[in-house]
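Field reference: sequence -> structure
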Amino acid sequence: MMSTVLSAAGLPLEVIAIIAGVDRLTDTFRTSLNVVGVLANAAILESRERRNESESR
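Structure field:
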């Protein structure tokens, strides 16, 4: 979809290929960052649940 928009903007195919390659790298970085955030939230919630369970006993 991005290549269609960039082609319509009049960019040469070589430029579109470079942009697509860079976009792939940044997309991978964003995905990795999201996974790390989800894992961090899960770890925080688990530690709080354990602390609450131990306090209620």
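Note: The chain has two helices and no strands.
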